[in-house]
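Students often ask why we bother encoding 3D structure as a string. The short answer is that it lets us treat folding as translation between two languages. Here is a chain of 146 residues written in the first language.
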Amino acid sequence: MHRELITFEVGGQVFGLDIMAIREIRAWTPATRLPRVPHYVAGVVNLRGTVLPVIDLAARLGWQPTEPTPRHAIIVTQTGGKACGLIVDSVSDIVTLPEDSLQPPPVTANDSIISFLEGLAAIDEQMVMVLNLPALGDGQDFGEAA
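And here it is in the second language, the structure alphabet:
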């Protein structure tokens, strides 16, 4: 069995998300900041009349927060009936990989990103980190933040 992933870059690293969890890819739109939300929630944007919470994926992964420019993109995801946007540096490609090619991430002492990964896959001589979308929410209901 095969999986289709959308690959994209954040902080110079290549990530992948299951294509079935992606509703659309949008050009960068400035987000309206909200009070009392986690540091990685960049704010909300208007998605055809719906308030969409937007997560700064770099900040969520524990990296330097993104300074968004018009070159950035927002990947709109849908999981568990909830929509959420992810700020990414760029969207790369759609790739197909065999299910058995996904390998568990190595356990390292202080790499907090491991908890957000479903696994790793070597695609075209580059390592792609496949994100576990529900883990990014970590129990947060971003719809309530909006």
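Translate back mentally: The CA atoms of residues 47 and 125 lie 36 Å apart. Keep this in mind for the problem set.
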